[in-house]
Automatic annotation (TrEMBL), chains A, B:
This is phosphoserine phosphatase. It comes from Candidatus Ornithospirochaeta stercoripullorum. Its cofactor is Mg(2+). It is an enzyme of class 3 (hydrolase). Mg(2+) binds at residues 7, 9, 152. It catalyses: O-phospho-L-serine + H2O = L-serine + phosphate; O-phospho-D-serine + H2O = D-serine + phosphate. The gene is thrH.
């Protein structure tokens, strides 16, 4: 019995913070883990900016609702869910993911969550567990699943390597260079074929 | 971060073998684990009957496609998936579940699978793991989820007791008598309220 675990941002939807910065016009929110490697500090920086601009969670969700999944992502996911089970493993927050999940037909997603204060503003983050993606694959294997994993980022590598099968999807040059043993796929149809081969193999 | 695990048959859809026996007119398929407690022997009995009647998997799936989810189940599940993550935990087979999952909007389901021979007939069953429902709840807790579970049958009790919260849903009299400490819900709206209270509690 097989299951597929997929990264969200860069695989099915655009990078949420980048897209949000563009839609909202707040350039300062384009800062990423490349600029600030400490994730908790980066999130504190982002939450401070959102507060300065008076953005409540509901405002943010309204902006995210206008971010579209990547072209072909919904169709790919529909075909995949007809074929096998799918869980999206992401380091984003469920409150941000919701408007996108709605557009993708509510696939199951394992991610983190936000703490919202009484005024509706973001006040903290709550990580479900450390190394969430790798641990989720381990847990799925422990209950009898053969797991296929795919993603595009450094935080997907442990998940892909822990899985029984997998590949990179539209990964950037630096990852392709450092992870030469992992295969790369750039189109949804090819990813679907790779998953079919895994299921039948 | 919360997740809800739900039994399938009796909670979201009718008992599949009973409904199949009725739709197909094969009375002998109404035999259940009450008549034959050994599940593997019961399944062998069912597979023999299907073969006698010349029923291939595709024929069975066509019949199952005409079985409707329970009244209100889709609407309940839609509301629940807007609210939190959901995984259906079932002892049925993915090949039987598929036509029903399609009608329910492809929620994620963890179940078992069938072995199909070259003529398209059922030849064996493949259990993903023993005590699959309880183990799935354990695995979800291990990766940081608070789990709410609900079901109607004996094979749901370990899952409900392992979860952080839960209740019986439309359970029969004998279970209500033996499990007096578990609360019972019979309507989807009440189940949704119970889950909301769990999430907020």
């Amino acid at each position: 019995m097989e299951i597929v675990t997929l990264d969200l941002e860069g695989v099915l939807v655009p990078e949420i913070w980048i897209a949000f910065a563009e839609k909202s016009g707040i350039e300062a929110l384009k800062r990423t883990t490349r600029d600030e490697p400490d994730y908790h500090r980066l999130m504190q920086y982002r939450m401070d900016i959102l507060r300065e601009h008076g953005f409540k969670l509901s405002d943010i969700q309204n902006v995210i609702a206008n971010i579209k999944p990547l072209e072909g992502a919904k169709e790919f996911l529909d075909k995949l869910r007809e074929l096998t089970q799918v869980i999206i493993l992401s380091d984003t927050f469920s409150e941000f993911a919701l408007p996108l999940m709605r557009q993708l037909g509510y696939p199951t997603i394992f991610c983190n969550s936000l703490v919202i204060d009484e005024s509706g503003m973001l006040s903290d983050i709550r990580m479900r567990t450390e190394n969430g993606k790798k641990k989720a694959v381990e847990a799925l294997k422990a209950i009898g699943f053969r797991v296929f994993a795919s993603g595009d980022s450094y935080n997907d590598l442990a998940m892909i390597r822990e899985a029984d099968g997998g590949c990179l999807f539209r990964a950037p040059e630096n990852i392709l260079k450092s992870e030469r043993d992992l295969s790369l796929v750039t189109e949804y149809d090819d990813l679907l074929e790779k998953i079919k081969a895994f299921i039948n193999g």
